[in-house]
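Progress narrative, Year 2. Work on Protein FAM200A-like from Octopus sinensis advanced from sequence curation to structure prediction during this period.
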Amino acid sequence: MHSEHVHKSEEFFKRKLEEFDNQTKSLKKLVSVSSNALLASYKVSYRIAKCKKPHNIGETLVLPAAIDMVEAMFGESYAKQLQQIPLADNTVARRIDDISEDLCDQLVSRLRNCKFAIQVDEGADINKNAHLIAYVRYAEENGAQSMSGNKSGLQALVKNRAPEIIWTHCMLHRSALVSKNMSPELNDIFAQITKVINYIKHSPLRAKFFAKLCEDMDSKYTSLLYYCEVRWLSRAKVIRRVFELKDQVADFLDENDIEDAKLFRDDDFIVKFAYLVDIFGKLSILNNQCRDHNYIYSLKRTK
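Result:
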């Protein structure tokens, strides 16, 4: 194989290695820029849909205006990068369709995990074509955001009728806020764990190889669990499973030359990882106790 290079000097191979490294860096940079441009395209399309503007406003107004602003503030080199963002008329339409489909999937996912009320009605468009309209109402487990609004939330509506009322958050909502408002350092660790889970679970082939590795190492489990943000209590089970399989995860990532493998062998990372496992485990236990009908609560208001 490549016998023509047998008598080449050492400098020749060093030069080839340097060329290969430069090509790899250029490719990674290109992929990163394309990913950022794609994300920007979706964000702009989302705003266009929310404002109910024509799809062509992206390429006729939004993008040119953004280029002008960036060029004036940061220079021409940064402004040129914005030209990579795809905002053509048809592109924006496809992005909006993708976002709409994703929102529908999120709604269906929530409805499958809670009790809901549904109301149907018939409506007609300007062409007098009949359409079925469905209204769905449900109580989400994490309702902290809608409950805490003192200007437009439920709290404000009740206080308009009863100004002297004392408002106390549900204990489950407090737990939800604790699990969401983590420190940036712990939040980064959880994001890295989620990234590793998605890498292994996203590909059926990788998931199969990981299961085989776990079987060969006589592990108690052979798979990881997907994390769903809607079901925030699932964090406890998800990260505990990863922690119990941390050695297997590290070996699997090493075999696939993934840089995150070193995290699972870093003592500082493991200590913080274990802390997250314990905290979310305690929150899960607390939530289960609060759901017990025979459990007695004692709430005291302190001044």
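The chain has three domains: 10-94, 114-167, 176-292. The two ends are 81 Å apart (CA to CA).
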